[in-house]
Amino acid sequence: MDTAAIRKAVLDTIASIAPETDLHRIRPDEPLRRQVDLDSMDWLNVIAGLQQRLSIAIPDTDAGRLSTLDSIVACLASRQAQPAATPQPARVAAGELRSTQHMVGGTAVTVRPIRPDDLSLEADFVRRMSTESRYKRFLVTVSELSDRKLHYFTEVDQLGHVALVAAVEREGRPAIVGVARYIVVPAGDSCEFAIAVDDAWQGSGLAGILMHALIDVARARGLPRMEGTVLATNTRMLKFMRQLGFSQQRDPEDRDTVRVLRHP
User: What distance in Å separates the CA atoms of residue 243 and residue 260, rounded to the nearest whole number?
Assistant: First the structure.
């Protein structure tokens, strides 16, 4: 594929994510995110869309190169001989869910299954969250989790209860900065998910990385639906859910919340 075709594919992908964009006004040598209204989740969707459209692998290590239209086209042209890796289905056994490495805002992040020895890290993660963030996650006011709840959150089978953490090194010590999980409902035909991200990491794109990983597991496990509950006032989360392809409906039994639904 020549560079003209790649450039058209990039512009078409941007138009599909941000349809209000006037493509003719984009300056190819200036940062795209200064010209197009793309937040972190939109940007992830652009990258994912390009990988699917062009069958070109775009590793996280290339993220710093993808700032202008010209640099994106050059990067894709240099990688087009390297086909995107075929997605591997998530393993059924708990210990076989794979860890992945990502660069988020210049920081190395490991997304991996949660472990029982993460109990103290999980407790610290919840303590660091602001009161507002804890309320949005748990839908009740809590200051920290009980020992019983911490064991429940960290000692999971990764089958009926799947939990992924985003872990970083902070001052030489490990820290959890995000958690995404789902629990399969008794009927086995759907799962209930939840996600929380450290306040300092909100808007960084980390939530998108975690949710895409969780959706991939649900899809590989053959779950036909993912569902969740979001506060009606949490407009940022509702926008995030729309970007991920979740439909929304008000809960007739609770006007303060919105049910979100996606078929993985």
Answer: 12
The correct answer on CATH 3.40.1180.10 for the domain covering 3-79 is no
Running DSSP on this structure, what letter comes out for residue 31?
B
What residue spans define the domains of the chain? 3-79, 94-262
Q: Which CATH number fits domain 94-262: 3.40.630.30, 3.40.50.2300, 3.40.50.360, 3.20.20.70?
A: 3.40.630.30
Question: Each residue of 134-168: pLDDT tens digit?
Answer: 777 766 666 677 888 899 889 999 998 999 999 99
How far CA 262 is from CA of 80, 162, 218, 243, 246, in Å, comes to: 31, 17, 11, 11, 5
Tokens describing residue 221: 């496990």
Question: Which region, left, alpha or beta, applies to residue 132 given φ > 0 means left and ψ of -120 to 50 means alpha?
Answer: alpha
- pTM comes to 0.68
How many residues can be counted in the chain? 264
Q: Could you give the CA distance from residue 84 to residue 152 in angstroms, rounded to a whole number? A: 37
